[in-house]
Specification:
This protein is mainly alpha-helical. Helices cover about 70% and strands about 5% of the residues. The chain is built from 5 helices and 2 strands, in the order E-E-H-H-H-H-H. The longest helix has 30 residues. The protein is elongated, with a radius of gyration of 19 Å. This is MARVEL domain-containing protein. It is found in: Membrane.
């Protein structure tokens, strides 16, 4: 009796320049695309929150928002760089619980920080900084959604779906 089975062959593109190796094919995956978007929105959130940090009286929601956005900006940058620097990292890390835990924590804390920040910002309606700070809070909420989607992708990869 003969049994047949299917085999999937994946090809990956690698860009090399002397000793630098970049896993460019990772940027064409959903996981890579979401990480780049999370990083870009994180830069926007950190920049706005840091530039518009009051010097005389720092509120707890503003500080919490700045701390969470900075924390996950750094974490996502390191995660993205490690996946771009190595083929094995991008394939192995997806099969661990690290990405599930990281992205679910980022989702929960980004959501909490953005919602906490949006309340005092909405009370500032009419001030000069209202539109900019509201944009940062909304970017934080969008980033929370991206981290939630990354959690779902990580969960699917972990389960092998």
């Amino acid at each position: 009796m003969t049994m047949s089975h299917s085999v999937t062959i994946r090809t990956q593109t690698m860009t090399t320049s002397s000793t630098v190796v970049i896993n460019t094919s990772y940027l064409r995956t959903w996981s890579g695309i979401f990480k780049v978007l999370e990083l870009a929105l994180g830069v926007v959130c950190v920049a706005i929150a840091a530039i518009h940090m009051p010097t005389y009286y720092v509120t707890t929601p503003h500080l919490f928002f700045l701390l969470m956005t900075t924390t996950f900006l750094i974490g996502t940058a390191i995660l993205l760089m490690s996946c771009l620097a190595s083929f094995s990292t991008s394939s192995i890390i997806a099969k661990t619980t690290y990405e599930i835990l990281y992205h679910s924590a980022a989702f929960a804390l980004y959501l909490a920080a953005s919602l906490t920040f949006i309340i005092p910002v909405s009370d500032m309606k009419g001030s000069q900084q209202y539109n900019v700070l509201m944009a940062a809070a909304v970017c934080g909420l969008v980033n929370a959604v991206l981290y939630f989607l990354s959690t779902l992708i990580a969960l699917r990869a972990y389960r092998g779906l």
